[in-house]
């Protein structure tokens, strides 16, 4: 089974083709969009929720510290500090298409 990988450049090229604009300006727009998403997710607020209608929700929330986690390779106990975890939950339309049989 072959995995198809799309890059930011592929997204920008597709937007440029659909809207009839230059690929260069489209790349700038796509870069700016992802920069804004990244800045929202890494801000100091512990709970961040970015909802994009008809696509999905990005959430960033804190995890608890784990004082007695275990490294599965060495079986050594390690301390894992509290950190933020990111999650994506697909929207209704996307979920409907992903659930179709292959």
Large-scale geometry: extended
User: Which percent bin holds the helix content?
Assistant: 25-40%
CATH fold-level topology of the largest domain: HU Protein, Chain A
Instruction: Write the CATH homologous superfamily of the largest domain.
Output: IHF-like DNA-binding proteins
Number of domains: 2
Strand content: 25-35%
Give the C-alpha Rg. 19 Å
Brief synopsis:
With 102 residues, the protein is α+β, with helices and mostly antiparallel strands. Helix content is 38%, strand content 27%.
How would you sum up this structure, described in words?
With 102 residues, the chain is of the alpha+beta class. The protein folds into two domains: 1-42, no CATH class; 47-102, HU Protein, Chain A (Irregular). The chain is built from three helices and five strands; from the N terminus they run ααβββββα. The strands form two sheets. The chain has a three-stranded antiparallel beta sheet. It is extended.
Fold topology:
Layout: H1 8-19, H2 23-42, E1 48-52, E2 56-62, E3 66-70, E4 77-80, E5 84-90, H3 92-98
Antiparallel strand pairs: 1-2, 2-5, 3-4
Helix pairs in contact: 1-2
Primary descriptors:
HU Protein, Chain A; 2 domains; two-stranded antiparallel sheet; 27% strand; extended
């Amino acid at each position: 089974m072959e995995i198809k990988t799309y890059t930011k450049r592929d997204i920008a090229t597709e937007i440029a083709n659909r809207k009839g604009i230059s690929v260069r300006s489209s790349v700038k727009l796509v870069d700016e969009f992802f920069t804004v998403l990244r800045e929202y997710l890494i801000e100091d607020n512990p709970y961040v929720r970015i909802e994009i209608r008809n696509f999905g929700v990005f959430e960033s929330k804190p995890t608890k510290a784990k004082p007695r986690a275990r490294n599965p390779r060495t079986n050594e106990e390690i301390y894992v500090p509290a950190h933020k975890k990111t999650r994506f939950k697909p929207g209704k339309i996307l979920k409907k298409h992903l659930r179709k049989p292959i």
